[in-house]
Write a structure and sequence with these properties.
The chain is an alpha/beta fold and 415 residues long. It is 29% helix and 21% strand. It is built from eleven helices and 20 strands. The protein has helices spanning 14-21, 74-85, 106-119, 131-139, 154-168, 178-187, 195-204, 237-243, 276-284, 303-313, 383-396, and strands spanning 2-6, 27-30, 39-43, 46-50, 63-66, 71-72, 95-98, 102-103, 191-193, 209-212, 253-258, 261-263, 297-299, 301-302, 317-321, 331-340, 345-346, 358-366, 400-404, 412-414. β3 (39-43) and β4 form a beta hairpin. α2 crosses α6, α3 (106-119) crosses α4 and α3 (106-119) packs parallel to α5. The chain starts with a strand and ends with a strand.
Length: 415
């Protein structure tokens, strides 16, 4: 089983890369996160954003599975399935759902909003999809799982949890859950399986599996910029717990990063550019959240943070996205160290990466000022971009094996 995941704060372009890689794999599996993910895929002049369904769904010969580590909103999942089916894709014969995946209830969204409101200026900046409260119920052993919808007492279990949520909000309020319950009825018609048995069976039979991560490594609940993180383990280790697979089965780890950095929501971002350059990156890169539509914070590439996530994931192959966004810049900067408030230089990602507490130290590169979208080999790239890539390889110790030079499936260089 190989793993593909983001090495920054999410939005690295994982959807396109999974779509590019899937011809090599029999199965594509989501292992964490929920509809807070937004994996954008462009092909045949069409674009689509996937939130819960794995990105291999557009390949006719691939199987796709939503693992136990994912949290599922039945409404969002079924709407997504219907939209894909309208594109002529046979989703239901190619998609399996874990019985152990937890369900996002209508009240989880309300709890999410209430939690953010209570935090005021210290809010995390969640997508408001109820992800955090669902994982909270999971850890507190209160959650409902997909397999529960097959039980005869499901409605009793559901209403008990709903009432518990409302007691924390407003016991007298009413929730219109008709659409949610209707989506649950449709969810029952999908292939609902014991994913740990199925996935290990596939491995034993020799099937190749690509585990698709969501969000980014710097948003990992344990090793990200806590508390401004997501509620799941976004690192490679999360693929094991999110699919029921032993670590020995993990092979290649494909780490995806942008040629610059972006972040959505609150939290530290050492290389953030609050100037015209940051605005220019946002406009050229169309940096708006695929799930929320919020403008992304933009900044230069942070090698310190990238080395950290390469280490934490034992990355074997690097994949650089959105190289073309930098085509018109005279000068490109890369953060190679941090300067602390005390004036000390550090070359590692610290426990408290407070955005006011550390200052990036930059190395400058000459821009290539060339349209690279038609390039299809490393040698065709301008020398300045090749130098930029080689520097990243030297700093991380890992080869950049794929370079994206545009949003479409074929605008990709594979070395």
């Amino acid at each position: 089983m190989d793993v593909v995941l983001g090495l920054q704060w999410g939005d690295e372009g994982k959807g396109k890369i999974v779509d590019v890689l899937t011809p090599k794999y029999d199965v594509v599996a989501r292992f964490q996160g929920g509809p807070n993910a937004g994996h954008s895929i462009c092909f045949q002049d069409k674009g689509f954003v996937l939130h819960t369904v794995p990105s291999g769904i557009f390949r006719d010969d691939s199987l796709n599975i939503i693992g136990n580590g994912v949290v599922i909103d039945p409404i969002i999942l079924m709407d997504e399935i219907h939209a894909i089916e309208q594109m002529g894709v046979d989703v239901r014969s190619h998609l399996l759902v874990s019985k152990r995946a937890h369900l996002i209830l209508p009240t989880h969204r309300l709890l999410d909003a209430a939690s953010e409101k209570a935090k005021g200026q210290n809010k995390v900046g969640t997508t408001g999809k109820g992800i955090g409260p669902t994982y909270t119920d999971k850890i507190a052993r209160n959650g409902l799982r997909v397999g529960d919808i097959l039980r005869v007492d499901f409605l009793a279990r559901y209403h008990a949890l709903l009432s518990a949520h409302l007691s924390l909000l407003d016991p007298d309020s009413e929730v219109d859950d008709s659409a949610w319950l209707s989506a649950v009825e449709q969810l029952r018609q999908l292939q609902i399986v014991d994913n740990e048995v199925v996935v290990n069976g596939w491995l034993q039979s020799g099937k190749t599996i690509l585990a698709e991560g969501a969000q980014g490594s710097l948003l990992d609940v344990d090793f990200g910029s806590y508390p401004f993180v997501t509620s799941s383990n976004t690192l490679c280790a999360g693929a094991c717990t999110g699919l029921g697979v032993a670590p020995a089965h993990v092979g290649n780890v494909y780490g995806i990063f942008k040629a610059y950095c972006t972040r959505v929501g609150s939290g530290p971002f050492p290389t953030e550019l609050l100037d015209d350059t940051g605005d220019r990156l946002r406009q050229l890169g169309h940096e708006y959240g695929a799930t929320t539509g919020r403008p992304r914070r933009c900044g230069w590439l942070d090698i310190v943070a990238l080395r950290y996530t390469v280490m934490m994931n034992a990355v074997t192959h690097l994949i650089m996205m959105k190289s073309d966004v930098l085509d018109s810049f005279d000068t490109i900067k890369v953060c190679v160290a941090y300067k602390t408030k005390e004036g000390k230089l550090i070359d590692y990602f610290p426990f408290d990466a407070d955005e006011e507490g550390i200052e990036p130290v930059y190395k400058e590169f000459k821009g290539w000022q060339t349209d690279i979208t038609s390039c299809r080999s490393f040698d065709e790239l301008p020398a300045e971009l090749r130098d930029y890539i080689i520097f990243i390889e030297q700093q991380t110790g890992v080869k950049v094996c794929i370079i994206s030079v545009g949003p479409n499936r074929d605008e990709t260089i594979i070395r």
